[in-house]
Amino acid sequence: MRDSNVNFSFLHRTCTLVVLLCFLHISVTVFYYVRSIDFKQAFVQNQQIQQDQRKLTAYVRGSEGETKPSATFPLSRHRNTTEKSLESLEKCPDPSPVLVGPLRIEFSSPVSLENVRNENPALRKGGRYKPKDCIALQKVAIIIPFRNRDEHLKYWLYYLHPILQRQQLDYGVYVINQDGDETFNRAKLLNVGYAEALKEYDYECFVFSDVDLIPMDDRNTYKCFSQPRHLSVSMDKFGFRLPYNQYFGGVSSMSKEQFLKINGFPNNYWGWGGEDDDIYNRLSSKGMSISRPSAVVGKCRMIRHERDKQNEPNPQRFDRIAHTRETMHKDGINSLQYKVVNVEKDQLFTKITVDVGKPPN
Question: Which residues are catalytic?
Answer without folding.
Answer: 210, 212, 272, 275-276, 302, 305, 307
